[in-house]
């Protein structure tokens, strides 16, 4: 098999008119429409500069305010967080709760370096003292069964 090198000169123009992009190469023309009303991706918007971890911390503080003691489950946090963000995915939320609990046995699988919670027992968490600043002192009691 023998190969012969060659080159072909290619010239082109790109025209942009609003939502319409036209690409012309040599004498071939292709148009692409960029609709501004395109369907958004699967991501949810939490607000500017806000992360899922911020949402989890706020949900924990709200659960403690409502219950009056510092013990809760991930489903309780998820329920409170969904009040403001109904499109939250349960699995993503729960995995980030675990990623925020250094003494949870699965924490080693996450790289978040968050330390919001302590693992109290199967499915139960408590908010660490340093994140209780938003909660009045009289509401910072620990539940004793």
Can you tell me about this structure?
- The chain is α+β, with helices and mostly antiparallel strands.
- The chain has a domain at 52-139: Arc Repressor Mutant, subunit A, CATH 1.10.10.
- Helices cover 25% and strands 19% of the residues.
- The chain has a 3-stranded antiparallel beta sheet, with no helix packed on it. A two-stranded antiparallel ribbon has the order 4-5.
- α1 (52-67) crosses α2.
- It is elongated, with a radius of gyration of 26 Å.
- The termini are far apart.
Short key terms for the protein model shown above:
145 residues; Arc Repressor Mutant, subunit A; elongated; 19% strand; 3 helices; 3-stranded antiparallel β-sheet
Q: Which stretches are low in confidence, meaning pLDDT under 50 for 5 or more residues running?
A: none
Number of helices: 3
Give the C-alpha Rg. Answer: 26 Å
Approximate strand percentage? 15-25%
Indicate the mean pLDDT. Answer: 83
CATH architecture of the domain at 52-139: Orthogonal Bundle
N- to C-terminal separation? Answer: 84 Å
Q: How is the main sheet built? A: 3 strands, antiparallel
Q: Name the structural class.
A: alpha+beta
Extended strand count:
5
Secondary-structure element order, N to C: EEEHHHEE
Helix content: 10-25%
Task: Describe, in short, the structure shown.
By secondary structure, this protein is of the alpha+beta class. The protein has helices at 52-67, 74-84, 90-98, and strands spanning 12-17, 20-25, 28-33, 117-121, 124-127.
